[in-house]
Amino acid sequence: MKLLTAIAGLIVAAEGAAIGNAMDVQNVLQSVLSIAQSRPLKSSKPPNVLFVITDDQDLQLDSLSYTPHILKHMRDKGTFFSNHFVTTALCCPSRVSLWTGRQAHNTNVTDVSPPYGGYPKFVDRGFNDNFLPVWLQEAGYDTYYTGKLFNAHTVGNYDSPYVNGFNGSDFLLDPFTYSYLNSTYQRNQDPPVSYEGQHTMDVITEKALGFLDDALEGDRPFFVTVAPIAPHSNVNPPTLDGPNQLVMGAPIPLPRHRHLFPDVKVPRTDHFNPDEPSGVSWIRDLPQQNQSIVDYGDSYYRSRLQALQGVDELVDSLVTRLEESGQLDNTYIIYTSDNGFHIGQHRLPPGKTCGFEEDIRVPLFIRGPGVPEGYVQNSVTTHIDLAPTIFQLAGIPHRDDFDGTAIPLTPDYAGPRHEHVTVEFWGKAVFEGDFSQIGMDGSIFIPNNTYKSVRLLGEGYNLYYSVWCNNEHELYDLSTDPYQLHNLYPSGSVLGENEPHLLGRTLSQAISRLDALLLVLKSCQGFTCIEPWKVLQPQNSIYTLRDALDEKYDLFYQAQPQVSFDWCDAGYVIEAEGPQAPLTTRHGLPWDAWV
């Protein structure tokens, strides 16, 4: 409307100028043309989507404070989703869940390499013909991708088969994916090309801008994904005279950024290298870090922040190019990461794979038509909600096999929502960092790191509940224990008259609800992942944990089978995962007598 008013005013001025001289008319009409070119009328075609996904970027360790361009373009011009979570704190399973809208227990891609994960597993499961870019192409979109897609996508298997779903692609390939100064990319169906000696951020920036130009020149709406590896650890490809084991060293920033933040340290929160151990299983057995390890962690943290400067500049370049093209007002831009990261919290060396906040809570910004600027959305959102969200933006009907639902992009959003996140993991934990620098072994693998958990944020509660494959349990009330230092789950003692309370009920009564909820979520599919309480109590109006805590349901929840494992396995082996189905109120008497 402002544009039309301005043009109308200039036309009136042109009519008046006609009484004067032709040069005045020409100047006025030139002004009209300039406005029309700089502020084009809204396009009638479906919106474009630019998707930027970083690798291992933390939210809880404050990395965003060091990315001014991202804050300017994404936070100030869009919405920040403050409670956004991944469902598996490991890159390949998390990315497959993101691109399919399904939990890892439904994709069965649970690791970074075969037999339980990686690109070969993705192909074996049939997803190369059935994931987001394929669906978007079917809906009339041009699709482009550059950067890291999945782990175990290699110089040896990139063509068996080629990745489907993209008009143009230029993928990073293993074993060079994480080598900042020796990357290999593979374009469309061409042979791989080595970029040894060039920094991978410079390479991907050039490729990303090229694909964006290609997309802008097309007549159809576009979906462009840019997936830089920063701030992931640097991993050099193996050599004959190199170390015997994989070494995941600090990321390598661009030369122009290596001097930055010389005095910055990992935030010294209460759970940073605590005096008392916390957590369960192998985490509780970690020794307190000595000063050499703490100093190394601080150096590692600075390298991550420096490496992110390349991403910050990349985002600035992409937004600037969209602005110059006149397509920014018809483009949604999504910025996120595949999982979070910890350094020193709970005495942990650098890494991810845990269920703590540092690993599962990640940045998410969205800007675009109708999305409020400078707004903070506190609703619970997850990576399996992103594909349904993109479907909604593109006007594509929701798929029944989505385990998530569209993210609320406006404050008045009235669609279905959830207060829970299903977090699951199988197999190994990994210590990252080149600890040989301080007299320790290189990267360390912990074989037993399988767990199922639920993260709940509702009215008056903020909880995390998990069951490990050795049947240890965790329960944290983050409203009073934001750093997850005090496990509330009772260990070895029988709860009696002086039993602690949680949310107005005894601890055992609250745990019975949380465990039943997790029992549904650890095997859920489709709508049962979004509305799990309807599985348990289809005959009652139960939508939240608060509803389920009503005392009239105590016997029902006490009778539920409990989440447990029969053994620890490296992948999703259903026979190892204990009970799969809860009792429901449809089971008849005696349930009908007291619900």
Automatic annotation (TrEMBL):
Annotated signal peptide: 1-16
Q: Its catalytic activity?
A: an aryl sulfate + H2O = a phenol + sulfate + H(+)
Any one GO biological process: phenol-containing compound metabolic process
- Give the UniProt keywords, A-Z: Glycoprotein, Hydrolase, Signal
Q: How is it modified after translation?
A: The conversion to 3-oxoalanine (also known as C-formylglycine, FGly), of a serine or cysteine residue in prokaryotes and of a cysteine residue in eukaryotes, is critical for catalytic activity.
Which InterPro entries is this protein grouped with? Alkaline_phosphatase_core_sf, Arylsulfatase, Sulfatase_CS, Sulfatase_N
Family matches, as Gene3D superfamilies: Alkaline Phosphatase, subunit A
EC number of this enzyme: 3.1.6.1
GO terms (molecular function) for this protein are: arylsulfatase activity; glycosaminoglycan binding; N-acetylglucosamine-6-sulfatase activity
- Sulfatase N-terminal domain residues are 47-396
Please tell me which top-level EC class this enzyme sits in: hydrolase
Q: Does the keyword Hydrolase apply?
A: yes
Post-translational modification 3-oxoalanine (Cys), affected residues: C91
SUPFAM superfamilies listed in its UniProt record: Alkaline phosphatase-like
Q: Does the keyword Glycoprotein apply?
A: yes
PANTHER family annotated for this entry? N-ACETYLGLUCOSAMINE-6-SULFATASE FAMILY MEMBER (PTHR43108), SD21168P (PTHR43108:SF8)
Q: Which family does it belong to?
A: Belongs to the sulfatase family.
What protein name is recorded for this chain? Arylsulfatase
Q: Which organism is it from?
A: Penicillium frequentans
